[in-house]
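Holo model, S-adenosylmethionine. Inputs:
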Amino acid sequence: MTYTRRQRSSLLYQIQYAIRNPDRIRPYVSRYARDLVLRASAPDHVAYYREVMRSDVTEKSPFKAVGSPTEESWLRNGLLQFEYLLSHGLQPRHRVLEIGCGNLRAGWRIIEHLDAGNYYGLDISPDILLAANDTVVRYELQDKLPNLHLVRDLTFGWLPDDHFDVVHAHSVFSHTPLEIVEECFAHVGRILRPDGFFDFTFDRTELAEHQVLREDFYYRTETLVDLAAKHGLEARFMYDWEKNPHKQSKIRITVR
Ligand SMILES: C[S@@+](CC[C@H](N)C(=O)[O-])C[C@H]1O[C@@H](n2cnc3c(N)ncnc32)[C@H](O)[C@@H]1O
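Output:
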């Protein structure tokens, strides 16, 4: 079901939701309290979300910080992402950039599959990148020389033109305001090879676009397709992803 802002923010909806999901009340209240503090202290969204990740990694776990309640679900989610890329032709010789790589839920499988040096992962969170280093060690991927980078924006200034066959962002734009999505669209075409593609997932709504506590953002497909076109990019809704047991939708971007 697609939730609208009206439904989520109406008192009646929230009371009904709380009655149906009493176990969600405490986590929501603690997210709400964190939002109040961060809203007053964080200068921008990246600083805000970096702090969200810091508290989730240190107070919960790296698995939970990227949205997987257990290690088993972390493994399942990563496999889903990886198998989709494989079914769309990912080869060991390809160069892959993962935006918002987290603790390498899919990344470790991609690194294992690619030739050494062909994986680049970036993230705004130092805490989750430290957990990514641990994942490299856990899966003994040192010889694959994965490149993991801390960033403060999505302008990719340190990366070369026409370089990546695949750019991948899973469950990142679901936590990103539209101006940062646009920043990414404005620059991703430069680093993509002419025959490359950029796949990202997003929380899709067919009604009013909205955000919840600055952590979860819901967009209409047309908004993202039109924004991509503004930057000379072709955007295609990936219907074959919809059959997966994952609640987000996927769009593929190519350079026109
Ligand atoms: C839900 S986690 C998903 C991580 C990984 N893609 C996965 O599937 O496991 C979202 C990740 O995106 C990162 N992130 C959020 N906003 C970002 C941004 N503007 N630029 C780069 N990374 C970002 C977060 O720090 C976090 O690691």
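The chain has one domain: 5-255. The longest helix spans residues 25-41.
Archived with the compound record.
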